[in-house]
Design goal:
The protein has 150 residues and is α+β, with helices and mostly antiparallel strands. The chain has one domain (28-149): Macroglobulin (MG2) domain (Immunoglobulin-like), CATH 2.60.40.1930. 15% of the residues lie in helices and 44% in strands. It has a five-stranded mixed sheet, with no helix packed on it. Strands 1-3-8 form a three-stranded antiparallel sheet, with no helix packed on it. A two-stranded antiparallel sheet has the order 4-5. A hairpin with a 5-residue loop joins strand 6 and strand 7. The longest helix has 12 residues, at 4-15.
Length: 150
């Protein structure tokens, strides 16, 4: 009777057999998404959202108009349509939820949500987390960004 060690060695050998499988990353493109915080106006966001890299404000002031921008690069289109969305959650420095926005439309490859910071909110490092879904490709991912509130 073979030992457990022998069985494990055989299993590892079979898993490493050349040509036995192709990594998933070689079958399709990797989904890329990003999130950034900005104090730009809506017009400035529309002008700059297509930039190669989104500019991110690492620090904002309480009471300032703040927007979270989410972008999905390489959305898989079906009949010319991108079916993508994101859930965006902003966490306070103590880990509690400041705001949560569900099903932000990313059909154009990007979306924005207002982040409401009151003058009474605490200073510190906040975290924005975006869970992005590309429904045509049946894939999802999470991306996050930190920003300071002074």
């Amino acid at each position: 009777m073979p030992s457990v060690l022998t069985i494990v060695a055989i299993a590892i050998g079979l898993a490493q057999t050349p040509g036995s499988s192709t990594p998933l990353s070689q079958k399709r493109d990797v989904m890329q998404s990003e999130v950034a915080i900005t104090t730009w106006t809506d017009g400035e966001i529309r002008e700059r959202i297509g930039a190669k890299v989104l500019e991110h404000d690492s620090e904002v002031a309480r009471g300032e108009n703040v927007t979270a921008m989410v972008r999905l690069l390489g959305c898989q289109r079906e009949k010319g349509v991108c079916r993508a969305s994101a859930d965006v959650v902003v966490y306070k420095p103590d880990g509690t939820v400041l705001s949560e926005m569900k099903n932000v439309d990313l059909a154009s490859g990007h979306g924005t949500v207002a982040v409401k910071l009151d003058a009474a909110d605490v200073t510190g490092v906040y975290r924005v987390v975006a869970t992005v879904r590309d429904l045509n490709a049946r894939r999802f991912g999470t991306t996050e960004r930190l920003f300071g509130v002074k």
